[in-house]
Amino acid sequence: MYSDADGEALLRAAFPDVAANDVEPGWEDRWRDFHHPVRIGELWVGPPWETPPVGAVPVVIDPGRAFGTGAHATTRLCLELLLAERRGSVLDVGCGSGVLAIAAAKLGFAPVTALDDDPVAVEVAARNADVNGVRIELVLSDATASRLPAADLAVANIALAPLRELAGHLDCARAVTSGYLESDELALPGFRRLRRLAAEGWAADLHERK
Predict the structure, then answer these.
(1) Are 177 and 195 in contact (CB under 8 A)?
(2) In what order do the strands lie in the sheet with 112-116?
(3) 158 DSSP assignment
(4) pLDDT given for residue 27 in this prediction
(5) Which residues lie below 8 Å from residue 55, measured CB to CB, with a gap of 6+?
(6) Predicted model pTM
(7) Which of 8, 55, 63, 158 could make an SS bond with 97 (beta carbons 3.0 to 4.6 A apart)?
(8) Under 8 Å CB-to-CB from 160, ≥6 apart: which residues?
(9) Which CATH class is domain 63-209?
(10) Residues 6+ apart with CB under 8 A from 134
(11) For residues 199 and 178, what is the distance between their CA atoms, to the nearest angstrom?
């Protein structure tokens, strides 16, 4: 853990054998070293301190305390599937930093709704949407608690277990899902799988309502 001198004194009072080491200046921004831009088709997804290439569709993401920089394989796979979809309305379930919803809006999907049960994620996604100059409706809600807003396409890059719960709450014709391993099989009730992409041991699927 990180602490100041007062915190160290309190720890030593409770745990006399605790070890302490000085940290290098700038440790609080060290995570930036791991946040690199990625290119998926016409999309460029990267942090605000990087410059997108000419001709790319930029999606500028500062994740803050929310999940999603665009670099993880599951996000890249979802974006690859999203690029090939017919433009229409989109619902991003478990939006995290808002990367998928913002990319959808940048690509011409509308209207776009992004939902998460974490208020920090909703706050970060709203801030990223403003930076990118896109209009997204943000909702703080538990996706498995009630029927979700209708959309032509739902995207959900979340864990396998909640995805299985999610199917009965979806009101969409097609769905892009990820957040699970290539070895995992997701049978989304009420849908049939049309396409699967995989990278680095992770998978993403495109589903169509039966």
Answers:
(1) no
(2) 137-140, 112-116, 90-93, 151-157, 172-181, 202-209, 191-199
(3) S
(4) 42
(5) none
(6) 0.82
(7) 63
(8) 179, 180, 184, 186
(9) alpha beta
(10) 102, 105, 106, 112
(11) 11
Residue type, 136: I
Place of tokens 């999907």: 109
CB 97 within 8 A of CB 64: yes
Q: How far apart are CA 132 and CA 205, in angstroms?
A: 27
Contact by Cβ (8 Å): 75, 200: no
Token match 């309502």: residue?
Answer: 209
By CB atoms closer than 10 A (0-12, 13-18, 19+), residue 10 is exposed
CB atoms within 10 A of CB 70: 28
For the chain, domain boundaries = 63-209
φ/ψ of 138, rounded to 5, equals: -105, 135
| Environment class of 83 (CB within 10 Å of its CB; exposed 0-12, middle 13-18, buried 19+) | middle
pLDDT value of residue 31 = 45
**pLDDT 10s digit of each residue in the chain, 210 long?**
444 565 556 556 666 766 666 655 654 454 455 567 999 999 999 999 899 999 999 999 986 654 556 689 999 999 999 999 999 999 999 999 999 999 999 999 999 999 999 999 999 999 999 999 999 999 999 988 878 999 999 999 999 999 988 888 999 999 999 999 999 999 999 999 999 999 999 999 999 999
